[in-house]
Amino acid sequence: MYSKIFLNLFFLIILFVLRLSFVPALPSWLSRLDLLIIALVFILTLVDFKTAFWWSLGAGFLLDIFSFLPFGFYLVSLFLALLAVNFLFNSFFTNRSLYSFLTLTFFYTLFYRILLSGAVYIWQFFGDREFFKIFILEFWRDLGASIASNLIAVFMLFYLFGFFSKKLKPVFLIKRK
Amino acid sequence: MLKSREKNIFKYIAVVGLLIFLHFIKILSPIEDAIINVFRPALSKIYTVGSELNISYSEQTNKKDLIKVIDELKKERNKLIAEKTKLEFVREENEKLRQYLKFFTTENYNYVLANVISQNVFIDAQKQNQYIIIDKGRKDGLADGLAVLDGQGVLVGKIAEVEENISKVFLVTNQDCKLAVLIQNQAAGQERTAGIAQGDLGLTVKLDFIPQTQKIEIGQLAVTSGLEEKIKRGLVIGKIVQVNSGSNEVWQTAVIEPLANLNELVIASVLLP
């Protein structure tokens, strides 16, 4: 039990550090890769919602500490996006195919970024700075880069997981004559 | 089944709400400070690794242009040697005058060295809003509006927000970064052109509202004017690469290219007042 918590915490911290410091310094589209979202999609689909929730809580908390936005923006956005993706996973993309992974990653990135941007807008609305990124082309370009890089990473990770784990292997029911 | 799922969701919402509540009543402050202090050294080292990868990638992609760049640099070096010789005379003269007037040297700046731990990572990090996060904060004497320099003493930005242990720095190319500048065009026999420079599209710096009577040329340097309370005069920002002065316009505009390589910044110094 404790070893599992420790292991999860260890990987969360590793991913967070990479997400905050290593990835943004990388060149080109690689800098838009969101490792935490990819991890959350894999945990949600391969483990369970509860573990994914604790991961989103930990990731959101750490991001909020280092961000200059009001505390809770990342926490709530990651959590609400997780709820929405969990609904999609339970209702529509129930199998663990590559298409499910790609679609869930797409929607997680989209929901998370729009929720966060919306929250920032509401916050800034009472200030005097223009901040509604949703109507700016740059927002969509950036979101597109983020979604594309996440999808490419998930595509590669899917086959990597499939190679090492049996969880993603398809199961066929053979009808005996 | 549905009811138990709904119940669970409320439980999760309650946990999130509790965490936010505990933050705002400052119970979590010691834990948050401890996390920041523990993470800071690792973050700056890992950022350096990422940045070095970025530099080597850029070097690979830029190799084709290197020969052209070398030629340009040779020309510029020769020009600078000539300028340096002239400035040496001026410096000697200046020193003598200072001795006579018993002036204090103005180059003894107080500064704080800081490591960059992250850049453009959060939601407001689209190109127009470029910023970096450094590992020094209010505790180290930093405050909003202070100038941030690179290793060569070139201005890279100014502090936008300060927290206890970290600070957010708007880079000069950030559209929210406004600086009082002077163009070094005194050689044209006129007063130096002053204005407010503002980041443009996350790539360059734009200087607006320059009267048509002022003569500015490509290659002239833009430096801080010292009109801002916390930023000293004479810090180099960049050089003019474009002048737009349509004959029908009331004002002319100039585009300044920052001299500092903002993508390769891993250590910065913050000038204290």
TrEMBL record, chain A:
TM ranges: 6-26, 33-56, 68-89, 101-123, 143-164
Domain of life: Bacteria
Keywords on record: Membrane, Transmembrane, Transmembrane helix
Protein name per Swiss-Prot or TrEMBL: Rod shape-determining protein MreD
UniProtKB/TrEMBL annotation, chain B:
Gene3D superfamilies: Rod shape-determining protein MreC, domain 1 (2.40.10.340), Rod shape-determining protein MreC, domain 2 (2.40.10.350)
Domain Rod shape-determining protein MreC beta-barrel core stretches: 124-265
GO cellular-component term (any): plasma membrane
Membrane-spanning segments: 12-31
Entries under Pfam families matching the protein: MreC
Keywords: Cell shape, Coiled coil, Membrane, Transmembrane, Transmembrane helix
Keyword Membrane among UniProt keywords: yes
Endoplasmic reticulum in keyword set: no
Coiled coil: 63-93
One Gene Ontology biological process: regulation of cell shape
Domain of life from the UniProt record: Bacteria
Protein's job: Involved in formation and maintenance of cell shape.
Family annotation (NCBIfam families): mreC
Family note: Belongs to the MreC family.
The name this protein goes by in its record: Cell shape-determining protein MreC
Organism: Candidatus Falkowbacteria bacterium CG11_big_fil_rev_8_21_14_0_20_39_10
Gene (name only): mreC
